[in-house]
Amino acid sequence: MIGSRTLLVSAMAVTLCVACGHDKRAMKTVTSRASFELSCPQDELELTVLSTEGARKLASQIGVTGCGQKVVYVYFFSTDTWTADSAITPTMTQREDAYEEQKAREDQAAEEERRLEKQQSYQRGGSE
Description:
This protein is α+β, with helices and mostly antiparallel strands. Helix content is 54%, strand content 24%. The chain folds into 2 domains: 2-90, Nuclear Transport Factor 2, Chain: A, CATH 3.10.450; 92-128. The longest helix has 37 residues, at 2-38.
């Protein structure tokens, strides 16, 4: 009985060690690829495991955010490779900033138009 428990614990330890090794290698590989593809220093990247597979819970999708961009990498077990699975896109904060800038420009243009109309009305002798 003790022998089978020891064997089971040993098997679990080996499984965890394999998963740990896979995930460490995955983070290193994805960090290197993302740094190149996003033109972003490695220390500015944030990696998040999005999905795992199998009994060993091996990372199979990793999301990367950095330098105002984001991308998802997927792992192909058959070829032992990580590949970008999404287009590199701006993060939401960049989109929100762009929206706010556009809105401010539109508001400024509308205010300028109202000011110009008021000035033209005043020059024509109208009262407003």
